[in-house]
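Quick check before the chapter quiz. The format below is the same one you will see on the exam, so make sure you can read both the input and the output lines.
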Amino acid sequence: MQEKTLLKLAVVSSIIGLIILFVMSSFTQLDNTDISKLTSLDVDKTLKVTGIITKISQTEQTTMLEIAQHNRMPVLIFDTNLTLNKGDEVEIIGKTQDYNGELELIADRIERK
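Here is the expected output.
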């Protein structure tokens, strides 16, 4: 094959692949996770958690929340421009991390319900 034909084929294949990935990602949804069922095996998993804010503390660079369902879980947020209040119900998508033997959630996205 000629070089131009191979280049066109590669570009078309890449575009089709990107479209397929975009469509597949729009159909992928996370189920709500019960934090009382999380174990140390759940470290580095991305999950969605809904709960009530029971505690808030802020620094210049981070916001630390504690959310409650049946149990409580700390949530670390690196966006300090949020307006959240104790008692707000929030939905958080983030990745679990082990910190001093306890699971915490590093928030990627947070929405007030």
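If your answer matched, good. The chain has a mean pLDDT of 91.
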